[in-house]
Structure to design on (368 residues):
DNA sequence: GCAAAATAGAAGTCATCACTCCGCTTGTCA
DNA sequence: TGACAAGCGGAGTGATGACTTCTATTTTGC
């Protein structure tokens, strides 16, 4: 129960950071050794922090969710209710430029993305609920929408953007989704 | 150049069919042996028809694209121009009930989904182009849309639906996308 | 400064999996 | 109906990669 040493904390963070980059770039098939190397860390260390590859992947995923939840919360409190939801979606989807492969990453690791029992998932759901409610109250989002749809659309839009060739195409896809959210 | 034996043709079809089902259900990580078993075929046979796992996966994918292209073409000629595009999207996306994991399947196999050089891809693009043009002419789709966006939205919507818990949620997601396609 | 905690990373274990090889079976065509 | 090539099944092979273990070394906290 004693708090971990400073270098342990540092290494854990470095592993997560490197893992995200490598996994997103090369997919879940990359070896743990590769990830350890990218993090500048021995294999033993990696496995002490994350006893299985799956837990490492889940760690990366949950870190991402936490960042999303933080963004959503910030926008929900600071932003204009009428535009906050759209801004969030835009931000979230642009976040990892090269590849938003995080969900398919998880899926191919055999993790069920819809398993929303964890704490980061709960936090994101809650933040999205607030964002959505405010948008609906100010007429910026269709009334029948609920949080699960929002999450789905988030993942889906991110997927859709992978197919966009240029910036114009990207912005058109985004425009379609945003218009759809509004209509109703 | 002699035509293949009857049993060979039959087996090839059975492999493709079983592979689609197993791959969609369990992801690309399933072993080829599992696929062979599902097809009721020996491993040797599987590998004679598809010399590598990647070629098998690509085969499944292209078969799917061909079916999509056929559907699109049929709707483009037979259907009401104003509703054909929406109908197509609805159909395409509902096709594989459990999981429309085909694209992430390919992606995790290291195949670039956006590589549109193959014949089935070309056929689909062409059919979609017709569908889109007719929809735009009858005011059922925003004018600025182009085919790549449509393909992206197809994949994205399919992804989004994976998150929908129940039928109501599914239909709301679909409604968002369809409204977005129209708006403009 | 020292004990405890943590690390690097080499070497090894074990399971898995894509793919090969080859003896047997079956479709085809005379 | 018989011969024979095309096709088949499935045991076997080699590579890979997740995870363990261990020793010598470094880092941290008090």
């Amino acid at each position: 129960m004693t708090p971990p040493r400073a270098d342990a904390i540092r290494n854990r963070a470095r592993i997560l950071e490197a893992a995200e980059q490598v996994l997103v770039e090369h997919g879940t098939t990359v070896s743990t050794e590769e990830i350890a190397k990218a993090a500048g860390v021995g294999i033993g260390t990696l496995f002490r922090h994350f006893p299985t590859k799956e837990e490492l992947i889940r760690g990366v995923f949950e870190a991402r969710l936490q960042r999303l939840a933080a963004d959503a919360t910030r926008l929900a409190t600071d932003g204009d209710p009428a535009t906050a939801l759209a801004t969030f979606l835009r931000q979230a989807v642009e976040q990892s430029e090269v590849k938003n492969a995080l969900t398919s990453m998880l899926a191919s690791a055999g993790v069920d993305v819809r398993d929303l029992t964890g704490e980061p998932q709960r936090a994101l759901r809650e933040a999205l609920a607030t964002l959505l409610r405010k948008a609906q109250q100010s007429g910026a989002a269709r009334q029948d929408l609920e949080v699960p749809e929002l999450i789905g659309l988030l993942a889906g839009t991110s997927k859709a953007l992978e197919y966009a060739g240029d910036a114009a195409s990207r912005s058109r896809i985004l425009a379609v989704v945003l218009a759809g959210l509004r209509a109703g």
